[in-house]
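Work Package 3 (structural annotation) set out to generate three-dimensional models for the target panel prioritized at the project kickoff. During this period the team completed the workflow that converts sequence records into discrete structure tokens, so that structures can be stored uniformly alongside our sequence database. As a representative example, we reproduce one entry of 442 residues exactly as it appears in the project archive.
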Amino acid sequence: MFDALSDRLDAALSEVRSRGTLSEDDIAKAMRAIRLALLEADVNFQVVKSFTAAVKERALGAEVLGSLNPAQQVVKVVRDELTALMGGAGRDLAIAGSRPTVILMAGLQGSGKTTACAKLARHLRGERGMDVALAACDVYRPAAVEQLVRVGEQAGATVYEQGTSGDPVEIAEWALGRARAEGRDALIVDTAGRLHVDAELMDELTRIKKRTKPHDVLLVVDAMTGQDAVNVAERFAEATDFDGVILSKLDGDARGGAALSVKAVTGKPILFASTGERLDAFERFHPDRMAQRLLGMGDVLTLVEKAERQVDEDKARELEHKIRTQSFTLDDFLEQMQQVRGMGPIGSLLKMIPGLGRELGPLDVDERELDRVQAIITSMTRAERRDPSILNGSRRRRIARGSGTSVQAVNQLVKQFGQMQKLMRSLSDGKLPNMSQLVGGR
């Protein structure tokens, strides 16, 4: 996510970081590099112009040049201005005092709107404990209703639908009536998309808004389309009012033009971002955290939140006990690996640790290797997972066949697990591990 832009910004500021003092020429050179990085990231030209002017004005002021560490101050200024550019403190959904909260979803065909409806429903259920319903009002796109029913069920939401023969406005009003009668906490209305913004689309949205009186109207835009996404958002803003933006497919956007431009161009904040294909790959958009990620500063808060959602406190205490009593098994190792993978791609998680992304450089963690590890462990018997020392040659060959791997791969996993157990024994004894032992006595 934004890897290309992050690398360019890091390169632009590396010269600044390496200097003890800064001159106006140093700052001007850095601003030129930042301007070029943003333009290559497909950020709106006027946005780039305003952003670099604001950074330069602050960087040439006493706040930077008069400070004890001007390089750090320049980086801070860039971070602050990036945060402001993407929406400052951010904004949350408007939750109604009386049920249900109505959220109207809009967007062009192909933007990922229907999937975003299910992801938002899952988010509201998981994060807020809300009982969520979905209204299927896209009666034009082939299989749109069936798609919403399928992903809605996967998200644990109730789906209200009347097929494809009804009027979308009437369906929306009917769904709202059912949501009220059944005491739902929230109703998410999936409206029809078009290939482009047109009068018919805007008229239908306006009529649905009048009937349902939504508390929030959210526009879903495809982050991978860059400046085109911003243009779509701008045209929507001109035609009908909306409250915020959901950026879909943000994980596939290496440039970041949409995320950095949409708030400045439309005045509407980004509320959520879709960061993967899975329904749980969906998170609140925090401008300050995104600015830190862009500058290689990590994102500890998001990492902690992901961990809290995955880790059960009772299991965490049980794991601590097993480590202290040296009873950690391959079953425990597999469970921990699955919990970590549930938080998202490993490479993305590592980049949330401050400084680690810059130290590691381009990071491509092969998730297939983790699949192979899981296959090897699950091909073992319960006794073998508890005590890998019983694995003789014939057992290892059987495990290799069962997991579709090789005996060498089984041997490597067993060796690495043994090294991990040595580390845990040293730590439980309050000692630093003997690194020569951990790498095989070399």
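Confidence is low (pLDDT under 50) at residues 358-363, 432-442.
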